[in-house]
Amino acid sequence: MKVLFLTHSFPRFTGDAPGSFLLRLAVALRSEDVRVHVVAPAAEGVPEKEELEGVTVERFRYAPRRYENLAYTGNMAQDVATSWSARLALIGFFGADFARSVSARRDFTPDVIHAHWWFPSGVVGSWLSRMSHRPLVTTMHGTDVRLAKKVGVSRPLFRSVLRHSARVTTVSSWLASEVTSLVSVPQPDIAPMPVATERFKPDGSREEARFLFAGRLNRQKGLDHLLRGFASMRRPAMLDVVGEGSAASDLRLLASQLGVSDRVVWHGQVNQKELVRFYQAATAVVVPSVDEGLGLVAAEALLCETPVVAFRSGGLTDVIQHERTGILVTPGDTAQLASALDRVLDDPAHARELGQAGRLFALSAFSPESAAKRYSDIYKDVIADRAS
């Protein structure tokens, strides 16, 4: 079986973080006799066509290099909403994406087209599906659902993509409910993306009072809530911050205003090998996100037997089972968050138990083998439905 992946986010090199779970899924699908070919945007210094871990990737240019910044930044919707140059780049993006996808479809002759994120790849996928008479599977990861929810004018396009999809999947049960609350479509299949179970594992070198935040530095990821909770803890601790984003300077200022600058270490973006070491060393990982699509950071932490403290929000409730694999607190309640962090320090034995149980759960729920089997079955179903 052959499947064409369409995506705006895919690793640019081995170890690159953006879209790494898609590469992991593509590699794992080989064990199900599924061959994947990928179409993704270009990036500076990246070949137009290459193989990553045996997966062929074709990349398309969509604007002069200085304006080719819609992909890999996590800010596509915001940039398009506020910048005319970004809007023009988006027009070029759709045109170039479609042209390269048509070419890849002709040369690769896929049995299934699999679009990741309904916007922009699902839009292109729906065009390609209708033109080529190949079934379209559309997977939503979170940011794309938030776009449909917040930007009303996108709703008709959202509805069109879903109705032209042979199957719709989401990476969490919360996202599935969000989709059906927005448009009248059949219940999406819940099929999480895989985590690198062979990479994320414990090594026994955990710190006694050192928390970790890993994620984009923006409002949705909630580091501001964590900083406020961290400042009001009754026990002293350190906080490592891994990630970059548009709110970085504001968050550094907030840490200074709260009087915790000397206990917060800003590491910027790191590669996955380095990130594993942060997970392994942390007393706990804190995920204060709101409306998180799934929360792969939480799953990666659990695989390292690191307990997780998170907001009871979005897809995080699919990953964290309260008082079994981690601690869930009310979203935005910084006092409750501070109390949960203090509890982790007060009872290290219980924290270890949470981490150990979390690893067993994550191994069963997010392994590449499980994800590959789930998606292989979906592909077979849509092919059979198209033939009947």
Largest sheet: 8 strands, mixed
Number of domains: 2
Main structural class: alpha/beta
Beta strand %: 15-25%
The overall pLDDT, averaged over residues, is: 92
Counting H and I runs of at least 4 residues, what is the number of helices?
15
- The CATH superfamily of the largest domain bears the name Glycogen Phosphorylase B
Which percent range fits the helix content? Answer: 40-55%
Short description:
The chain has 388 residues and is an alpha/beta fold. The protein contains 15 helices and 14 strands. The strands form 2 sheets. The protein has an 8-stranded mixed beta sheet. It has a 6-stranded parallel beta sheet with strand order 11-10-9-12-13-14, sandwiched between helices.
Walkthrough of the structure:
There is one protein chain. By secondary structure, this protein is α/β, with parallel strands linked by helices. It has helices spanning 20-28, 76-82, 84-108, 118-132, 143-150, 155-163, 173-182, 223-231, 248-257, 272-281, 296-303, 316-319, 334-346, 348-365, 368-387, and strands at residues 2-6, 35-41, 49-52, 55-60, 112-116, 136-140, 167-170, 189-190, 210-214, 238-242, 264-268, 284-287, 308-311, 326-329. An 8-stranded mixed beta sheet has the order 3-4-2-1-5-6-7-8. Strands 11-10-9-12-13-14 form a 6-stranded parallel beta sheet, with helices on both faces. α11 (296-303) links the parallel β12 (284-287) and β13 (308-311). The longest helix is centred in the N-terminal third of the chain and has 25 residues, at 84-108. The protein starts with a strand and ends with a helix.
